[in-house]
Amino acid sequence: MDSPLLLILLSAAIAIAIAIAAATDSCPAYPSVPPTDCTVSTDDANPVAVRREVYGDGRIFDISHRYTVDMPFWKSKDGLGQFLWLPASMKNGSRSNNSMMKFVSVHSGTHVEAPSHMIDRYFDAGFDVDALDLAVLNGPALLVDVPRDSNITAQVMESLKIPKGVRRVLFRTFNTDRRLMYKTEFDSSFVGFTTDGARWLVKNTDIKLVGIDYLSVACYDHSFPAHLEFFEGREVILVEGLKLDDVPVGIYNVHCLPLRLLGSEGSPIRCILIK
Ligand SMILES: *[C@@H]1O[C@H](CO)[C@@H](O)[C@H](O)[C@H]1NC(C)=O
Ligand SMILES: *[C@@H]1O[C@H](CO)[C@@H](O)[C@H](O)[C@H]1NC(C)=O
Ligand SMILES: *[C@@H]1O[C@H](CO)[C@@H](O)[C@H](O)[C@H]1NC(C)=O
């Protein structure tokens, strides 16, 4: 995953204020696990942000992972590392807080990939994340559980019996059970598509959005060839590093929105499911 260095300067006064405001001992701003038992007392004078995974009385699921310094990163032992700085802060005399953001790779956390990721002529032709079809990234989606004892092979794909006409599928795998996205050290034994599984999907289904619950849709040993099966036709969009825990299997409306990073083959993405 050799990606160009991304530098985003972000005026995120509100975001950092919320993050820092919540940074008490019982409720760290950058926890390594979701703060499910993180209860914070609030009073009107000193309100404290409450973090949620589900909104709207259980109707809206946030399926993006929170970016944290210790979240896993491709092939890294040490995780993503620092990505936010506060060069101007009110504590140090500025009129506002202004954060700076810099990711070691656009393929960080929950992210989307464009065909230019692994096909050079598509890079030259401009098939970047800004050119991805929002009509594919938004619409009815099926969340399925895949068998836990296998990577996603052609045989597994066939056994899932995903009906024709289904255009968006989020594959929940053994990765979710193993809580791999909450472990700092990269684990190459994650579950993903094998080359024949990817080819089977492209040939035999109408699926154009493929989502998965670890950093790559392709299993480690098939990383390049399985990705190429998806990218070649330029129709399939890959969303990786999704947070699919505690969401019931079923049909939802998915909404995934990449940043408009001109010339980039990947982007952090916010994805939600609406029941
Ligand atoms: C500004 O940043 C500081 C950290 O220097 C933080 O303690 C404070 O809550 C922030 N304030 C606002 C209004 O964003
Ligand atoms: C404020 O400035 C001091 C001294 O330059 C620095 O050590 C500290 O990290 C700064 N704090 C913030 C929140 O920017
Ligand atoms: C999936 O494939 C990887 C290698 O890419 C392997 O390490 C892992 O054990 C496989 N998982 C299962 C459940 O077969």
Automatic annotation (TrEMBL):
The keyword Signal applies. InterPro entries: KFase/CYL, KFase_sf. Belongs to the Cyclase 1 superfamily. Its main location: secreted. This is Cyclase-like protein 2. SUPFAM superfamilies: Putative cyclase. Keywords: Extracellular matrix, Secreted, Signal. It is found in: Secreted, Extracellular space, Extracellular matrix. Residues 1-23 form the signal peptide. It comes from the Eukaryota.
